[in-house]
Every structure is written in C-alpha cells, then in structure tokens.
C-alpha cells in the first residue's frame, strides 16, 4: 500500500462523545492556535457524527501542540485519540477524485488482494518452517539429555570414571 502524505496542520480526533459537535470541538482546540476548519463527518443513516472529526489549524506548530496536549485527554467523559490526519479520500478511486467512479480502482484492488494472500501464504510457510525447526531442536536437546543420563548410569558402574568426572568438574 502506498504511504500517504500526512497533513501536518490537520488533526484526526477520534473517540468523540455523541454530544460533541463542531462548535464544542472548535472550543476544545482553539486554545492551541487559530483554527481554519472543523469537520465531524456524519453517518448518512443516522445523521450523527461517527465519533471522530478533523481539526485544521492555520499553523503546523499549533497542530503539533494540540496533538501533544489533547491525545489521551478527556472530553465529555471520553478519552480522545489525536493524530495527524491522512489526506481526505472521497469515495471513488485511490486518488480520491470525486469524478472518478467507485469501481475505478477495482483492478488494483484485486492486485492488492492477491499480494495480501501471497504474503499470508509466505508467513504461514515461514511459521511452519519455524515450528519444524523448533521441534527438531527440542528432539535434539531431549536426545542429548537422554545421552547424559546414559553416561551417568554407566559411570555409576565405573568408580574410576566417576572420580575422573568429579576432578574435571572441579577443574572447570
């Protein structure tokens, strides 16, 4: 997925309470600097905002200060999430042109789906290989431990071997 440019003077504000409107949002953010625009996109069915909004400051520095101070702050009993906003995408195509039909990016959508499926397949193969390697390692370790137990059993029958093992332990 192509990395979208961040708009450094527009903030995404998530976690808005139902009572919060554009006026309240404006009032909450105005202490940080001059605000150019406030938007709370509405849900077409309910005509209520979808618990997030956008605040655009005239100055990038003011937006940065607002983000630092308001991310995690509480407004009407809800904790806010404040980040830099990604460029607005109007329905229809990856470029976001309103004149572009909604199916315009269908070809690239299928391509992205195939790439994602390929990535998931590769991840699954890698995980399976890791599990197999771990299992092999566990078996090897178990065999080595079994071999040590056999060595100890053999030593019990051979007092000289036990004495040599004791001396080598003390020297290490």
From TrEMBL:
Lipid biosynthesis as UniProt keyword: no
Positions with biased composition (Basic and acidic residues): 132-148
UniProt domain RRM: residue ranges: 9-87
Family matches, as InterPro entries: Nucleotide-bd_a/b_plait_sf, PPIE_RRM, RBD_domain_sf, RRM_dom
SMART domains in UniProt: RRM (SM00360)
SUPFAM superfamilies: RNA-binding domain, RBD
CDD domains (alphabetical): RRM_PPIE
Keywords: RNA-binding
Molecular-function GO term, any one: RNA binding
PROSITE patterns (UniProt xref): RRM
Taxonomy, superkingdom: Eukaryota
Residue ranges of the region described as Disordered: 122-172
Protein name: RRM domain-containing protein
Natural source organism: Gossypium stocksii
């Amino acid at each position: 997925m192509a990395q979208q440019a961040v708009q450094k003077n527009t903030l995404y504000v998530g976690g808005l309470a139902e009572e919060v409107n554009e006026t309240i949002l404006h009032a909450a953010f105005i202490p940080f600097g001059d605000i150019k625009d406030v938007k709370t996109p509405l849900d077409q069915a309910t005509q209520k905002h979808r618990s997030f909004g956008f605040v655009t400051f005239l100055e990038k520095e003011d937006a940065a200060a607002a983000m630092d101070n308001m991310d995690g702050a509480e407004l009407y009993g809800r904790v806010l999430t404040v980040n830099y906003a990604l460029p607005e995408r109007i329905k229809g195509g990856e470029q976001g042109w309103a004149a572009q039909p909604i199916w315009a990016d269908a070809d690239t959508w299928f391509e992205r789906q195939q790439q994602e499926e390929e990535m998931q397949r590769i991840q699954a193969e890698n995980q399976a290989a890791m599990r197999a390697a771990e299992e092999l390692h566990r078996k090897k370790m178990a065999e080595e431990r079994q071999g040590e137990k056999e060595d100890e059993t053999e030593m019990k029958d051979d007092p000289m071997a036990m004495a040599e093992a004791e001396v080598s332990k003390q020297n290490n």
